[in-house]
């Protein structure tokens, strides 16, 4: 029979071993291509503020993080099902909180805006009644805030899987407005040629903060908690501010 003190030591050693094993596994982080947040370069390298944060987290935790860019809804589904460990960059919504565990703090901030063709008169003063008859495009799976969702329920909305398609349709005159964010849209505009210039109009639709999110299952809680502690340290020691400046991303803090 093992003495109680010796038995306790055996249990502690076993638990320590389990913790080390859990931390030593490979992790999969997924998302869709978000300019300055999560991007795949031609040389096969993943870059962006989200990647830089997670690479530093992996180094501190002595784990390996693999990355995968997929269509946005698939990425969300993979994390909801526990097929991936981390979702990079989702906006926090009550609907998503039902199936995802969000990090305590966001790591970037976006202004959601309408883009319109330059020279095309659009009356938008923040009152959705003023644009009810307009042909509006938005991105599939994106969150634009509760006011937008409620006010546009009866609107003529076209959804796009990628921003490039929405931009091209707006530029050709197939849409009157495109609801998107400046960060992603300006990055795509810098890479393509369109027949008619487009530009954001004011006022903004809403402000959305982007987070890291994790599977809701309890077995992923330690990973999320370790990330929260790590990220709080980044904020306090100034590393996070430096990274935000490097990637030219608006930070929530």
TrEMBL record:
Alphabetical keyword list: Signal
SUPFAM superfamilies named in the record: Periplasmic binding protein-like II (SSF53850)
Key word Ion transport present: no
Annotated ranges, domain Solute-binding protein family 3/N-terminal: 27-251
Domain of life of the source: Bacteria
Keyword check for Signal: yes
Annotated Gene3D superfamilies: Periplasmic binding protein-like II
Cited Pfam families: SBP_bac_3
Entry-linked InterPro entries: Solute-binding_3/MltF_N
Signal sequence, renumbered to the chain: 1-24
Name of the protein in its database record: Transporter substrate-binding domain-containing protein
